């Protein structure tokens, strides 16, 4: 009888030791509910501070059958300059119908699973990336999101080599390869951007039908949610970079953030450019508010913020 108890105790100690040893790789306890993901800590796990801001029910991407609320459409028109005289007086449904002539009707997203840990690297364009040597760390992630004209060639050691998603607005479009999803931030939408042969399609190299699966469009309701819930309506609208960051929180279980913030002199400059305009700010974007929120998310252990050197 004593030997049986001793054997049981030894087995229990062995199991406990294994759990502790592997804690850095994946949480382990006896007993435990099945985790929502295979990461050490899943973003979607309940946390009062986070859940006051994070709304999983908001769809990040627009789909062909999505019905936008009147409040969200009005915010979109005013905040994103759709109401200007040069913009066409189109209804939301007319815009969507034109858009999905060449864009996949419903984006395919990888959902959370106890069997995987979805990791995102969000790579901003801040001068703080210079000489950071973050490149290999960035490339290690599953999803790598870049913004607008952020350059790679010549900066690989600091910014990495891979891109899975590039968030752009039409005026800032750049050439994309066939492994990168275009995530279109619909600022200043005009009719010409959605027609065959448009400047957007020429610049990105997109061809109707064959490349439609590579295009995703941010949902105006998602953009409004980021502005209202995450930024408390500061500024006229969120920056492309901050939209990309919140998008990553919705797409991944672990998020790492690189290349955000002003330089030591307070200039919001890009890592590939020589700064000519001193005291460069963020315009209509609430840059300081966005930066403080990134810092807070890091402090709350909801993402890892790599600030550069």
Number of domains: 1
Structural class: alpha/beta
- Share of helical residues: 25-40%
Give me the CATH superfamily.
Glycosyl transferase family 29
- Summarize the helix and strand pattern as letters: HHHHEHEHEEHEHHEHE
* Residue-averaged pLDDT: 77
CATH class: Alpha Beta
Q: Characterize the main sheet.
A: 7 strands, parallel
**How far apart are the termini?**
63 Å
Widest sheet: strand order?
5-4-3-2-1-6-7
Rounded to the nearest angstrom, the radius of gyration is: 22 Å
Please give the number of β-strands. Answer: 7
Signal peptide: 1-21
Membrane topology: Single-pass type II membrane protein
Protein name: CMP-N-acetylneuraminate-beta-galactosamide-alpha-2,3-sialyltransferase 1
GO molecular function: beta-galactoside (CMP) alpha-2,3-sialyltransferase activity
């Amino acid at each position: 009888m004593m030997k049986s108890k001793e054997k049981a105790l030894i087995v229990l100690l062995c199991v406990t030791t294994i759990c502790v040893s592997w804690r850095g790789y994946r949480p382990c306890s006896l007993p435990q509910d099945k985790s929502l993901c295979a990461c050490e800590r899943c973003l979607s796990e309940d946390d009062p501070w986070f859940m006051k801001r994070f709304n999983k029910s908001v769809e990040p991407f627009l789909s062909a059958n999505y019905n936008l609320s009147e409040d969200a459409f009005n915010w979109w028109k005013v905040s994103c300059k759709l109401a200007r005289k040069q913009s066409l007086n189109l209804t939301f449904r007319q815009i969507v119908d034109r858009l999905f002539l060449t864009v996949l009707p419903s984006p395919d997203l990888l959902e959370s699973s106890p069997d995987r840990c979805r990791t995102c690297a969000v790579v901003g364009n801040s001068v703080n990336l210079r000489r950071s040597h973050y490149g290999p760390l960035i490339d290690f992630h599953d999803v790598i999101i870049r913004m607008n004209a952020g350059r790679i060639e010549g900066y690989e050691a600091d910014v990495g080599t891979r891109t899975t998603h590039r968030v752009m607005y039409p005026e800032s479009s750049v050439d994309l390869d066939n492994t990168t999803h275009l995530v279109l931030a619909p600022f200043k939408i005009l009719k010409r951007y959605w027609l065959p042969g448009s400047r957007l399609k020429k610049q990105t190299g997109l061809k109707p039908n064959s490349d439609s699966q590579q295009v995703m469009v941010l949902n105006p309701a998602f953009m409004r949610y980021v502005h209202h819930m995450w930024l408390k309506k500061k500024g006229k609208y969120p920056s492309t970079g901050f939209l990309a960051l919140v998008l990553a929180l919705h797409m991944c279980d672990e998020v790492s953030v690189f290349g955000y913030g002003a330089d030591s002199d307070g200039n919001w400059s890009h890592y590939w450019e020589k700064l000519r305009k001193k005291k460069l700010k963020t315009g209509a974007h609430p840059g300081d508010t966005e930066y403080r929120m990134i810092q807070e998310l890091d402090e709350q252990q909801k993402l890892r913020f790599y600030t550069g050197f």
